[in-house]
Amino acid sequence: MDHSESIRLMAAEKYLLGELAPELREQFEEHFFDCQECALEVRAGAAFVEHSKVLLAGPLAVPSARAAVPDSAKAGWFAWLRPAFAVPVLAALLLVIGYQNLVTYPQLKGAVAMVDAPRILASASLINANTRGASQTVVSARQGEPFLLFVDIPATKFSSYVAELDGPAGGSEWSLTIPADTAKDTVSIRVPADHHGAGVYTLVVRGVDSSGGKGSEVGRYPFELQIRN
């Protein structure tokens, strides 16, 4: 499919409306990957449909030139993309893009920079926490910050392991797969900053056999999380 045929068939509009036959759809996809004009039309149409409820929430002043445009049963939403409405629609899209560039992207860059920056994380060794009579391990971390747990997994013949963190209420908060090769040494687990509350948590490790089913429990590592300012 070339560009002139794409325009003649109104391929961009029909593509987004799901009205293209499978063969034409594949041909148009191959075309707009190399055609900036058609790719821009597809992106603009998709963005317009996404924000159409917001853009059309208020009353619209319909230009008199609208009457000269023939109605089409298949025009659908894309009648609003014709010249009479293109300027306000593009202006709204520019506002969305500007907000992303000025607010959303800087916030994401700041978050990424914070993750990549060197920092000292709270940590605790649970190596002896699986032993009966061992004193309670305490982790002192700031609210909303990740912390590290170090654990030794007893040598077994399981193909892998699953570590689950049980919260103070008893329910599992997340799970992590640990390959058998990794379990040969002390495992360092980074607990994500999920705004965990203070209380007693338990890291439960279970073996996974070759069929993928969970085997017996091989380790239970309780610790107390304390939140500091």
Largest sheet: 5 strands, mixed
User: Could you say which structural class the secondary elements and strand pairing correspond to?
Assistant: alpha/beta
Total number of helices: 5
- Average pLDDT number: 75
Low-confidence stretches: 60-69
Instruction: Please write the string of helix (H) and strand (E) elements.
Output: HHHHHEEEEEEEE
Helicity range of the residues? 25-40%
Distance between the termini: 63 Å
User: Biggest sheet: strands side by side, in what order?
Assistant: 2-8-7-4-5
Number of E-state strands: 8
Tally the structural domains: 2
How are the secondary structure elements laid out?
Blueprint: H1 3-8, H2 11-17, H3 22-32, H4 36-55, H5 83-116, E1 122-125, E2 137-142, E3 147-151, E4 160-166, E5 172-179, E6 187-191, E7 199-208, E8 214-228
Parallel strand pairs: 1-3, 2-8
Antiparallel strand pairs: 3-6, 4-5, 4-7, 7-8
Helix pairs in contact: 2-4, 4-5
Describe the structure.
This protein is α/β, with parallel strands linked by helices. The protein folds into two domains: 3-116, no CATH class; 122-228, Immunoglobulin-like. It has five helices and eight strands. The protein has helices at 3-8, 11-17, 22-32, 36-55, 83-116, and strands at residues 122-125, 137-142, 147-151, 160-166, 172-179, 187-191, 199-208, 214-228. A five-stranded mixed beta sheet has the order 2-8-7-4-5, with no helix packed on it. Helix 2 (11-17) crosses helix 4 and helix 4 (36-55) packs across helix 5 (83-116). The protein is elongated, with a radius of gyration of 29 Å. Mean pLDDT is 75; it is low at 60-69.
